[in-house]
Amino acid sequence: MLRSMWTNAFLPAQKYCNASMLSRQKIADEVSKLLELKARLGDKNGEEAPSKLLLKTPKGTRDYGPEQMALRLAVLDKIVTVFKKHGAETIDTPVFERKEVLTGKYGEDSKLIYDLKDQGGEILSLRYDLTVPFARYLAMGKISSIKRYHIAKVYRRDNPSTTRGRYREFYQCDFDIAGQYDPMMPDAECIRIISEALQSLDVGPYRIKLNHRLLLDGIFAACGVPSDKFRGVCSAVDKLDKNSWSEVRKEMIEEKGLDESSADKIGAYVSLFGGMELISNLRKDDELMKYESAVKGLESVELLFKYCDILRVTDKVIFDLSLARGLDYYTGVIFEAILTGDDVGVGSVAGGGRYDNLVGMFDNKNKSIPCVGLSLGVERIFNVLETKLNKEGAKTRTTEVEVFVATAQKNLHEERMKLLSILWDAGVKAEQSYKRNVKLLAQLQYCEESGIPLVVIIGEGELARGEVTLRDVASRAEVSIPRASLIQEIRKRL
Amino acid sequence: MLRSMWTNAFLPAQKYCNASMLSRQKIADEVSKLLELKARLGDKNGEEAPSKLLLKTPKGTRDYGPEQMALRLAVLDKIVTVFKKHGAETIDTPVFERKEVLTGKYGEDSKLIYDLKDQGGEILSLRYDLTVPFARYLAMGKISSIKRYHIAKVYRRDNPSTTRGRYREFYQCDFDIAGQYDPMMPDAECIRIISEALQSLDVGPYRIKLNHRLLLDGIFAACGVPSDKFRGVCSAVDKLDKNSWSEVRKEMIEEKGLDESSADKIGAYVSLFGGMELISNLRKDDELMKYESAVKGLESVELLFKYCDILRVTDKVIFDLSLARGLDYYTGVIFEAILTGDDVGVGSVAGGGRYDNLVGMFDNKNKSIPCVGLSLGVERIFNVLETKLNKEGAKTRTTEVEVFVATAQKNLHEERMKLLSILWDAGVKAEQSYKRNVKLLAQLQYCEESGIPLVVIIGEGELARGEVTLRDVASRAEVSIPRASLIQEIRKRL
């Protein structure tokens, strides 16, 4: 009887569609920009601000209507199913943190943090991701091991391109394993989870790129980069998914102060990608193998590849030396999933890695808890799936109503309510018009438009005979049924 | 196979318990207060602020751990099931709004709104409830009818008593019907929904108090209150659920400037409660019946009672003239549910009413959409159920793991991973230890503690024979099974 709350949008039998979902979003975005411009112009002219309320959501945010929510909940439900298959619990943390909790965790992106006004009391900021609050949670509760997922919205004062699906308020969808465990065992499971999630969401072909922060450090050392420039060079390499090598090279030389030959050596390394054979080739690189961190990093990648093979995801993973990940806190394996289909554009749909020192930043004795985790880029996944649904012309049902109770004559609204009571008591999802008198045709049309499968019709004749008419909306076939067997008949048909 | 994500905590077969859940919360609250005091003392002594990070969540907020989340999600799932049974869609709005959207909606409570810092751009505030954002959503989208639920957190800079379960960040759980409909038809369904939700949550006996804003206005007029004092007197009456009549009377006279005889007349009215007979008695009150709003309000209550009877909730509702509801925006029927069991204390667990003019406040032409809605006080419901679970000594499972894969000897961790791959591919919820070598006893103990029903054990003997040992955790019975029939055997037992 009880169906899971999040599966409706994906039931193939319910392929209705809202063909204009994306374009509506675009129009709303443009209108909102124009409105804001208009408001600003008013200010600049020195005129009195218009007394009319500017009716919009804050910049970079949006409302989610019923169609969008149905898709989102269906996506999140599939992801939660995967997380639970791997034994995860869930937790929640406040939407804001004491500002000092976030300080020093995000490097130059800290300027994007939303602060709350000082209204007397603590200085607070909205959460920027779910990882730092998770680390704070572990340190505060002295929790030494947990496998948890957390799905919630995070906030970044970015200048997002809302038409490309980037917002200032957006969902994150994280799974992390904290605890002192043996090498690569939790890490490999994270890769498997990304793969399972993308598979179950049916977003098309994908690849998971792998690399290791220690190996990158070894490469930078072998290329003659001084160790205090490792993080800066790393963040330059991270831009290779958006910028060309020549742009990144320029940044390394002009902004990070690298000499040309170091940059070119790095350029040769970060163009490499492959599988086990790349690992063997790097092992033969005597210059690189002089550096302990390169040796350790490579050993880790090799073990991870072995485990990926056992967990049957080798065909999805690729060892890619250009993968760097922006965040400072990673200390080991890093990974990132991209869609490789023709029509989906570029960009990551999942990412993560190992961060063994973050929890220690919250502990007075610097005691840390090793962690590895992944984050699914659900906003991009929503976009890809919305585009796909639009193309297919499919319609998403936004309610789960099974039965509509209609009347064929006037002044029978109390009879409708009596019948509804019986249906609700039996757990049937049912509704009626809230108007006392409404044309039968209008009631039937509503059912066809909203995809309600069954209609129970009562008229004076039916009442006199102790019957109801049961109509199948799709076939428009009607049968008379004694009131006493109505519930049974409805259950049979659903 | 797929189970609903939110039902686990309520499955009677899984009555484990965390007996110390509430007391842990209390301890955490006290520790956090002490830490804050300590930090402030440091400041006052003029010493340098301690470099150590104060490890706490912001005042009035908390983390929800796995046990608390399991209970919360189970409660919310039951509520969503009821909302969906009545045909509701869901929407979501941003956690913050442009400040002007919230201005002038909450009366003197506006001081409790959290503002964001002005970081250049719009002036924003965190949402204070879900009703005002809903009205903004309707006006902005020019939506003339919708039946929607919205479950999300809201923010109030109150001085909450966290030990009594009141917080600055808390869930609201709203269901509203917007649209131009016939009198009391949606209103009566809201009452039915509150009743269904409380029933399904098994919180014990409850009553739903009803009243009508127009009737209250009529009463105030009949008692000689000038119309500009209606709202002020109304908010005094609203305090009758916490304060005695003599306190409220004092407020009316000393703060609201009412004369004693008016106050005493009001006192006589607001002591009345009952059912249909109270309606008849008020009809005979000639003085009251001179006022059109009293006549209209009473007619509405009578019709609502009639519909409540048809919807089979009359035994739960009570017409109570002391019910006033604090918020300014109500215009018609108001209602509030309270628990009446011996051991649950006082306080409302649901409330709501009709607010026909709120949407119009956002429309430039003042065009409004009539609305009626309810809000379930889930934080109080969580508390009541946590206390109940503690008393019963029940344990809530926080994961849904079905099978634990264990090894009986050393160096078999790759075999565990191979088997896990097969289980995950088949959709079985399964996990292992992330340590290569771990004692069998420790693995079995973990399963007993965390309520995992089945263990698959592999040792060298099993591997040689192409078998596994399947252990039932509760009975500790073990059987040998060929690997090929493992999935089938697991499915049979779950």
From TrEMBL, chains A, B:
HAMAP family: His_tRNA_synth. Its EC number is 6.1.1.21. This is histidine--tRNA ligase. GO terms for molecular function: ATP binding; histidine-tRNA ligase activity; RNA binding. The keyword ATP-binding applies. Keywords: Aminoacyl-tRNA synthetase, ATP-binding, Ligase, Nucleotide-binding, Protein biosynthesis. It is an enzyme of class 6 (ligase). The lineage of its organism: Eukaryota, Metazoa, Ecdysozoa, Arthropoda, Hexapoda.
